[in-house]
Amino acid sequence: MRVIARMLWVLGLLAVLAPAAAQSRLQRGKLQQVQDAYAASIRWGDFENAWQAVDPAYRAEHPMTELEFERYKQIQISGYRDLSTRGGPDGTVERAVELRVINKHTMAERTERYVERWRWDPEAKRWWLVVGMPDLWKGQ
């Protein structure tokens, strides 16, 4: 009798945990998709498309000006390398990346590091970048 009760308890626990695990896998899959699309947009110089991955609340508080978009046209990204990924505060996911940046006018290449932070939006069922676009000019 105890064995049956234990088995029922384990099955009940699995019934509760299985959907959560499936949801977690689904979220991770969506995160990978949005990160890949974002990285491709950055890598190919489509910064306006990359801007669409930024959290709408962040975009409203920090709107990009035409001048800022023009600055991105002055550079080319020659490399985008994922350095590490880890869980961040409040269920966010942080990804450290290395960008190789070429100034189109001088053809000088430099390396910049950037930490992306992604949050899951349960209403939109998608991930948003909550830190904005990489500042490749260090605020200058």
UniProtKB/TrEMBL annotation:
What keywords tag this UniProt record?
A: Signal
Does the entry feature the keyword Signal, yes or no?
A: yes
Question: Where does the signal peptide begin and end?
Answer: 1-22
User: Is Signal set as a keyword in this record?
Assistant: yes
Name of the protein described by the UniProt record: DUF4829 domain-containing protein
Q: Which organism is it from?
A: Pseudoxanthomonas mexicana
